[in-house]
Request: fold
Amino acid sequence: MHFRWHLPMKCRLRNNESENDSIMTTYLEPTQAAGRDFVMRQIKGGVIMLNLLRFRETADYSANPELAPEAPISGAAAFQKYIDHTLPYLRESGGDLIFLGEGGSYLIGPEAERWDLVMLVRQHSAESFLAFAAHEAYLGGIGHRMAALEDSRLMPVVELPIEPEA
Reply:
C-alpha cells in the first residue's frame, strides 16, 4: 500500500507577515543532547512520533545530488519520495505510518508559525525506532527528507491509558 497525499497550493505567509519579519532557527536533525534525552527517558512499550513538517518551495538536493531527480521538484514531492523509500524499512522494524494530515497555522501557538504536513508514525518501541533510524538502507534515502524540508519538529509521545468513567 502506498500513501499518496496532495498538498494544496496556498499562500505560504499570513496576511500581515513578510519573509523578513523574524529569523527563526530551523530544526532538521536531532542534536546529540536530544538523542541522549530520548534514550534516557527509557520509554517502555510503543511510541508515536509526532512530526510537524514545513516544505521548501523547491527541493534542495545540493547535499545529496545522487538522489536528485532530473528536473526540479517541490519539497512536497521530495517528501513523497522519502515516504516511498522509507515505508518498507519502517514496517520491517515494527513501525507504521498511521496519520498524514494537512497542517496550517496554530489555533493556539505562535501566529507566524505554520506547518504544511502533520505525520504520526507508530513504533513498537524506542529501541525499534533507534534500530530503524540507524538502518543503512533507510539512511540511503534520507537525503529526500533533507531536500524536502525547510523546517521540522519531531516529538516522541507515549500513549496514556484513558480510564472509562465509573
About this structure: DSSP finds five helices and four strands in the chain. Confidence is low (pLDDT under 50) at residues 7-22.
